[in-house]
Amino acid sequence: MNHSIVYSNVRINESTHSLRFFMESPVHPGQFIMIWAPGIGEIPISFSSVNNPVEITVKIYGEPSKYIANLMPGEKIFYRGPYGRPFTGVTGKKLIIGAGTGIAPLMPLVDNMTSAILSAKTKNDLIFTDRIKNLYVVTDDGTLGIKGFAVDALKQMDINEFDMIYVCGPEIMMKSVYDYLLNKTDRVEFSLERPMKCGIGICDSCSINGIQVCRDGPVFSIKDLKNMDEFGRTRLSFSGKRIYL
Amino acid sequence: MNLNVDIGIKISNPFILASGILDENGYTMKRILENGAAAVVTKSIGTSERQGYNPPIIYENDPVFLNAVGLSNPGIDNFKDEVKIALESGRPVIGSIFGKDAPEFSELAKKMESYGVSAIELNLSCPHVNGYGMEVGSDPDLVYEIVSEVKSRVKIPVFSKLSPNTSNILEEAKAAEKSDALVLINTLKGMEIDIASKKPVLSNVYGGLSGKCIKPVGIRYVYEVKKETGKTVIGVGGIENVNDAIEYIMAGASAVQIGTAIYRHGIKIFNELNSGLIEYMDKNGISNINDMIGVAIA
């Protein structure tokens, strides 16, 4: 098990924290890390910045994430990784589409050529709005920006403008974006999130059509997903029970 | 060149996916069967849905692999569709089951049989309900009872996966002698502590050690059990490449199972093992793999 020392911890909304720490191994946009809360649990978390001190962004939803979100500067942070296949970098214009904390792994892609669609349930769930210049905000309840879903904002844009589109969020949201972009462009990458236990491609928890999200993903191109009919349809639960989305 | 072996079922090569690795989702098993594995053993399935232990369920410090998944599984009734998907490959699926006693094992075996699996693998390493902290497999009378009852209730072959965490493997093997084949070995019980946090690395504290560091133990058990009982043996434990597999076969294994090695080599290991075996047999003038089984036994 590796460990580092927490450099900073910033609370970015009611239940979300961004922590920075130094890592020896290089990290690429789209990769993730397994963070260990000793004696409590272990969860996968993606990087919201890949430059040292790297940054992870964690939303509190259980005991391990609560432990991690409460780590103070100077305390040890335990991890294994980084793991996973990163996003393909491009130099031209980029569009990132993120829903909820799904925006976090897309943040390392942000530069002055990047536009973003940022969606959330409500205004208070939006994060990183201050870090992106060309920003289109969508909320389910209309408390900020367009009322609706990420795909609704996408439909108002000229997608040919972008050299690459990157998407991350709940699978249902990504499926609606996938359905809209299918046969329109091949330059789209999605970062999938499925229940993950081992993180190294052997436990089968996160698999989709025989492919391991933790090892072969989490980033897949729209072309990859064409051959995965489990996408947006079914996944296995923590116990291994098939769930229909 | 003949790579077919008979382990109670006839399989097209000696390489089988071991239980517990990439065998919970039917689509994953199907993909592995379509990529060189002669058969797959499913994740161990019990009577009802179990969440298993909280992560960390695995600790990797290559070559050390420790796991304590805690028998997470969807329950036998929910597993039917996964077997169905895996069987679309047209290759055999071996159903691994665990239970607390003979009636439970029998019920699970019957259901697995009805799903279309080709054989049953009994996971005898689950906790013994009456012997606290013990494994079912370390009680020879219970093993005998489970194997006898399952054998009398299903028509398909029954394999017993034995635990190395015992003082007398031959006693265990003898108790399971009604099985069509013995699968050796399950993981070795172990643990590690992270000294920076002063905590055990697995949430369950104890786990099962797998990977290449356990291969000499597996070879020894396969050799000893084959030599002393003559039973059909399936070897498992630390196989990383074709030489390891050949070593197991020479020790007496009719087939071998691959698990942890997928971490380093990926699913493509099955095709690599097949081509490696063909190359070895070709170079050494061996036309039938069955001529290699147990040749090292003195």
UniProtKB/TrEMBL annotation, chain A:
<dbReference type="Pfam" id="PF10418">
    <property type="entry name" value="DHODB_Fe-S_bind"/>
</dbReference>
<dbReference type="GO" id="GO:0006221">
    <property type="term" value="P:pyrimidine nucleotide biosynthetic process"/>
</dbReference>
<feature type="binding site">
    <location>
        <position position="198"/>
    </location>
    <ligand>
        <name>[2Fe-2S] cluster</name>
    </ligand>
</feature>
<protein>
    <submittedName>
        <fullName>Dihydroorotate dehydrogenase</fullName>
    </submittedName>
</protein>
<keyword id="KW-0249">Electron transport</keyword>
<feature type="domain" description="FAD-binding FR-type">
    <location>
        <begin position="1"/>
        <end position="89"/>
    </location>
</feature>
<dbReference type="InterPro" id="IPR039261">
    <property type="entry name" value="FNR_nucleotide-bd"/>
</dbReference>
<dbReference type="InterPro" id="IPR017927">
    <property type="entry name" value="FAD-bd_FR_type"/>
</dbReference>
<feature type="binding site">
    <location>
        <position position="203"/>
    </location>
    <ligand>
        <name>[2Fe-2S] cluster</name>
    </ligand>
</feature>
<dbReference type="InterPro" id="IPR050353">
    <property type="entry name" value="PyrK_electron_transfer"/>
</dbReference>
<keyword id="KW-0408">Iron</keyword>
<keyword id="KW-0274">FAD</keyword>
<dbReference type="GO" id="GO:0050660">
    <property type="term" value="F:flavin adenine dinucleotide binding"/>
</dbReference>
<feature type="binding site">
    <location>
        <position position="214"/>
    </location>
    <ligand>
        <name>[2Fe-2S] cluster</name>
    </ligand>
</feature>
<feature type="binding site">
    <location>
        <position position="206"/>
    </location>
    <ligand>
        <name>[2Fe-2S] cluster</name>
    </ligand>
</feature>
<comment type="similarity">
    <text>Belongs to the PyrK family.</text>
</comment>
<keyword id="KW-0001">2Fe-2S</keyword>
<dbReference type="InterPro" id="IPR037117">
    <property type="entry name" value="Dihydroorotate_DH_ele_sf"/>
</dbReference>
<keyword id="KW-0479">Metal-binding</keyword>
<dbReference type="InterPro" id="IPR012165">
    <property type="entry name" value="Cyt_c3_hydrogenase_gsu"/>
</dbReference>
<dbReference type="GO" id="GO:0051537">
    <property type="term" value="F:2 iron, 2 sulfur cluster binding"/>
</dbReference>
<keyword id="KW-0285">Flavoprotein</keyword>
From TrEMBL, chain B:
<dbReference type="Pfam" id="PF01180">
    <property type="entry name" value="DHO_dh"/>
</dbReference>
<feature type="active site" description="Nucleophile">
    <location>
        <position position="126"/>
    </location>
</feature>
<keyword id="KW-0963">Cytoplasm</keyword>
<dbReference type="InterPro" id="IPR012135">
    <property type="entry name" value="Dihydroorotate_DH_1_2"/>
</dbReference>
<feature type="binding site">
    <location>
        <position position="123"/>
    </location>
    <ligand>
        <name>FMN</name>
    </ligand>
</feature>
<keyword id="KW-0285">Flavoprotein</keyword>
<feature type="binding site">
    <location>
        <position position="19"/>
    </location>
    <ligand>
        <name>FMN</name>
    </ligand>
</feature>
<comment type="pathway">
    <text>Pyrimidine metabolism; UMP biosynthesis via de novo pathway; orotate from (S)-dihydroorotate (NAD(+) route): step 1/1.</text>
</comment>
<feature type="binding site">
    <location>
        <position position="161"/>
    </location>
    <ligand>
        <name>FMN</name>
    </ligand>
</feature>
<protein>
    <recommendedName>
        <fullName>Dihydroorotate dehydrogenase</fullName>
        <ecNumber>1.3.-.-</ecNumber>
    </recommendedName>
</protein>
<feature type="domain" description="Dihydroorotate dehydrogenase catalytic">
    <location>
        <begin position="8"/>
        <end position="281"/>
    </location>
</feature>
<dbReference type="InterPro" id="IPR005720">
    <property type="entry name" value="Dihydroorotate_DH_cat"/>
</dbReference>
<dbReference type="GO" id="GO:0006207">
    <property type="term" value="P:'de novo' pyrimidine nucleobase biosynthetic process"/>
</dbReference>
<comment type="subunit">
    <text>Heterotetramer of 2 PyrK and 2 PyrD type B subunits.</text>
</comment>
<dbReference type="GO" id="GO:0004589">
    <property type="term" value="F:dihydroorotate dehydrogenase (NAD+) activity"/>
</dbReference>
<dbReference type="GO" id="GO:0006212">
    <property type="term" value="P:uracil catabolic process"/>
</dbReference>
<dbReference type="InterPro" id="IPR001295">
    <property type="entry name" value="Dihydroorotate_DH_CS"/>
</dbReference>
<dbReference type="InterPro" id="IPR024920">
    <property type="entry name" value="Dihydroorotate_DH_1"/>
</dbReference>
<dbReference type="GO" id="GO:0050661">
    <property type="term" value="F:NADP binding"/>
</dbReference>
<feature type="binding site">
    <location>
        <begin position="186"/>
        <end position="187"/>
    </location>
    <ligand>
        <name>substrate</name>
    </ligand>
</feature>
<dbReference type="InterPro" id="IPR033888">
    <property type="entry name" value="DHOD_1B"/>
</dbReference>
<dbReference type="InterPro" id="IPR013785">
    <property type="entry name" value="Aldolase_TIM"/>
</dbReference>
